[in-house]
Amino acid sequence: MEIDRTSIRDLELFGIYYDGEFLFEKGVVSVFNLAQTKAGKKYIEDYFSNPFSSIDKIRTNQQSLNYFVNNFNLWKSLLDELSYYEFDGVERYLSSNILGFYSPNFFKMKYKSSIFRIFYEDIIEEIISGILSVINLVEKAEKILNLLRKSEPDSSLFIEEVNIIEKFFKLEITKSLKNFQDLRHNTSKVLKIDYQLRNEQIDLVKKLLYTVAKFDGLLGLAKGFIEHGLSFPEFVSEKPYIEAIDFYHPLLKKPVKNSIVISKENNFLFITGPNMGGKTTFLKALGLCVYLAHLGYGVPAKSFKLSVFDSLTTIINTYENITKGYSTFMAEVKKVKEIAKKVVSKKSCLILMDELFKGTNFEDACETTKAVILRMVKCKNSIFVLSTHLFEIAESIKDCKGILFKCFEAGENENEINYDYTLKDGVSRTKLGMKILKNEKILEIFDKEREQ
User: Among 91, 202, 294, 419, which is disulfide-ready with 51 (CB 3.0 to 4.6 Å)?
Assistant: First the structure.
């Protein structure tokens, strides 16, 4: 599934942004990235960077993750044994520039061994340390193989990974690694093992490292799935389609859950509501669920049905581009142009828009937004969601077939504004801007300064 960098930023997948500035390193991915090792965490970051449009690839990921979710208690012992820097030693060792001193010639090796510990003691200790780190990796791989045999996953799962582990264990070097404590003082043996690991079998050792990191990553994903109560989405053949029941944003500590159904017949969702009422959070939560689903991962929802989308695009935070000479409005226009080209090409797209054309005056914003809505709703291969304060537009498009009108509301008394963040039918005409301004005592600051 295609997604541009701006949309990834808008959904806060890998970090939190505000006014275009990177504020927090932790984004949505960090919530579910519960792998133990640095290599495992890197696997998860790569996993979250590659959403699919192929239903077969999505389902393969779902099946792998589902296996670990169902067998997590069995595999938990492996996670408990791992630490963040577990495999750093292996990576340093394999990429090191330590010279290889091994020679297959017996007499040359005999000579080298006799002088090695005298003149190159630091190097031999570094080599031994690297070999020990590989031994630790091999022990973890052996445990993975034993756990797979014990739990008997579907025969179609982990074929490649099992082949890599079994191929390594068929090598003669595995016997030397198991008896390494008895061999570590034999310099010629140490140098031979070093040569085999860093030369003859280096590609296989790297594959073994990636395999173990992958299992750590998948276990970390399963742990995040379980701890956050995610559910597996169901993909349907009807296009386009979203049926989200009790979905929510995973970064919120006390999220309010909402539900929505968007289909080919009603493919444009028009959301109104006051400031801070929940419109943008709704957009992000919906976008995240669709994105996570296309990874083959779970979603924060009671249930989630959807079709496969070719593209996900957001217009949530749009900024002027000085280098290109774009104003904020022009940047929005350019993004809408990109969207238009995608949806008319018959791709199935999910388009999420927050306050479209906010970079121009009120009348222009209403006119341009209405013009775009009336054309987007005719692109029945895609789903469009727009949140806006411009409730005035609703009256002029109320008779247009294919538009769902939903809103967020807020209650107010003399001193407080109460939000329930619950999606409702209809159009909100609530105006709270002046109320918020007064609550923040901004006008008082100006008036006091003037009086002084």
Answer: 294
Q: Is the pLDDT of residue 225 over 90?
A: yes
DSSP string, 55-110: HHHHHHHHHHHHHHHHTHHHHHHHHHH--TTTTHHHHHHHH--PPP---SSHHHHH
Q: Are 282 and 423 in contact (CB under 8 A)?
A: yes
Domain encompassing residue 417: 234-451
Contact between 192 and 177 under an 8 Å Cβ cutoff? The reply is no
Q: Which residues of 272-303 are buried (b: 16+ CB within 10 A; e: fewer)?
A: bbbeebbbbbbbbbbbbbbbbbbbbbbbbbee
pTM (predicted TM-score): 0.91
The secondary structure of the chain in percent helix, strand, coil, rounded to multiples of 5, reads 50, 15, 35
Q: Which of 218, 353, 340, 333 is nearest to 279 (CA)?
A: 353
The whole-number average pLDDT for the span 429-443 is 80
Assign residue 364 the CATH number of its domain.
Answer: 3.40.50.300
Domain count for the chain, please give it: 2
- Quick check: 101 and 112 in contact, CB under 8 A? yes
CA–CA–CA angle 300, 386, 428 (5° rounding): 95
Of the candidates 222, 218, 240, 241, which has an alpha carbon nearest to the alpha carbon of residue 232? 222
Q: How many CB atoms lie within 10 A of CB 147?
A: 16
